[in-house]
Specification:
Structural class: alpha/beta
Number of domains: 2
Distance between the termini: 42 Å
CATH class of the largest domain: Alpha Beta
Largest sheet: 6 strands, mixed
Number of helices: 13
Order of helices and strands: HEEHHEHEHEHEHEHEHHEHHEH
Strand content: 15-25%
Low-confidence stretches: none
Strand order of the largest sheet: 1-2-10-7-8-9
CATH architecture of the largest domain: 3-Layer(aba) Sandwich
Helix content: 40-55%
Mean pLDDT: 94
Number of strands: 10
Length: 317
């Protein structure tokens, strides 16, 4: 189900709606003196559900009619959007069903269930098909698309408003790319209010369809490999999301699993910040020097990582 018109006014309208569910997250400087740039961290991992996804879910559900809400909501998600939808569904007193890939981390699945959500695990290809179908057999609920929904992107775009208010002199913004909803929302706000800022999407090398698609100029299918970076990454890019990326972004960068793990450890050691794999990709790119110098803001998209995985990474595995 797609809403109409994503622009700065829609993002501004979303701000008071999002404030009912989400917190205004801080932006802090990375405590590393010899970094290749002046790096800042926008800490969406501190949201009540540990992810920015609470913003888009709140805005999308606020736009629904009472009749729609009474049917309940459904999302396809590896975990964070599911938690965002389940959090807001609990707040509104309605049911929430989640179609999740079979590799979804236990931490995220358990969090969804604690919030009252029902989880249906399916193979990756069937999960990805749900994004195209915008429905699932046997589930009669209103589908909220995790990224290809203007209401969701408008909610995500409130991060861009906060970023420019708290760090108006920012030169570059690095945004994790899963399906494009986070990048689309933030970039729409930034382009409207500070057109000269450089905006890049970031992906893990093990699942980087945007990088391949932007290079080719058309949607490409890549060999997606599941890893601890489970909050982003897929086999391909929706054509309309690629068009949006081409219009709003200056490009995309990728990082290796080793670089992402090192960035995750660095945040924990220097800033006492716990990020999930997807939340560390932007910092990994910034530390590599690929994004250049100046003031770089890294969107730390979430912090929902299984503790056993976190322990292994912190131990250097």
């Amino acid at each position: 189900m797609k809403a109409t018109g994503l622009g700065i006014e829609a993002i501004r309208r979303a701000q008071p709606v999002v404030a009912q569910a989400a917190i205004r997250t801080p932006i802090v400087r990375l405590n590393v003196l010899d970094a290749p740039a002046d790096i800042y961290l926008k800490l969406e991992n501190l949201q009540p559900i540990g992810s920015f996804k609470i913003r888009g879910a709140a805005n999308a559900m606020n736009a629904m009619s009472k009749t729609e809400l009474a049917k309940g909501v459904m999302v396809a998600s590896a975990g964070n959007m599911a938690q965002g939808a389940a959090w807001n569904a609990r707040r509104l007193g309605i049911p929430c069903t989640v179609i999740a890939p079979d590799y979804a981390p236990d931490t995220k699945v358990q969090a969804i269930e604690r919030l009252g959500g029902r989880v249906i695990k399916v193979p990756f290809d069937r999960w990805w098909q749900t994004f195209s179908d915008r429905s699932y057999p046997g589930v009669d609920a209103v589908f909220i698309h995790s990224f290809d929904d203007d209401r969701v992107m408008a909610g995500n775009g409130t991060i861009g408003l906060e970023l420019l208010e708290d760090l108006p002199e920012v030169d570059t913004v690095l945004i994790p790319w899963g399906g494009g909803g986070l990048a689309g929302g933030i970039a729409t706000a930034l382009r409207a209010l500070k057109p000269g800022v450089r905006i890049y999407a970031v992906e893990a090398e093990t699942g980087a369809p945007l990088a391949a698609s932007m290079k080719a100029g058309s949607p490409q299918v890549v060999d997606y490999q599941p890893s601890f970076v489970d909050g982003i990454g897929s086999k391909t890019v929706f054509p309309n999301m690629l068009m949006m990326a081409q219009e709003l972004l200056d490009g995309s960068f990728t990082a290796s699993l080793e670089e992402i793990a090192a960035a995750l450890r660095l945040m924990a050691e220097r800033n006492r910040v716990i990020a999930e794999g997807a939340g560390a990709v932007a910092l990994a790119v910034a530390l590599s020097g690929k994004a250049g110098t100046g003031r770089i803001a890294c969107i730390v998209s979430g912090g929902n990582i299984d503790l056993p995985k976190l322990t292994k990474i912190l131990d250097g595995h």
